[in-house]
Specification:
Blueprint lengths: L5 H22 L6 H21 L12
Helix pairs in contact: 1-2
Length: 66
Amino acid sequence: MSDLTSDQVDAITHAWLDLSATSDLLNGDSPIDRHAWTEIGAATKDSVEELEKEFPFLLEEVDDER
């Protein structure tokens, strides 16, 4: 990880935290309230934008190898 910038590490960390929180909500025993969905939606949108900024290659079209 020494080749990554601190902003790149932050982007990966934030995305991982958002995925972890989403997984907890989706796999938990309690129903998910609208407020939680709103927060997760905003957080994941921010993470996608942060990842795209720090790793521009993510925006390139991926060839489908099927």
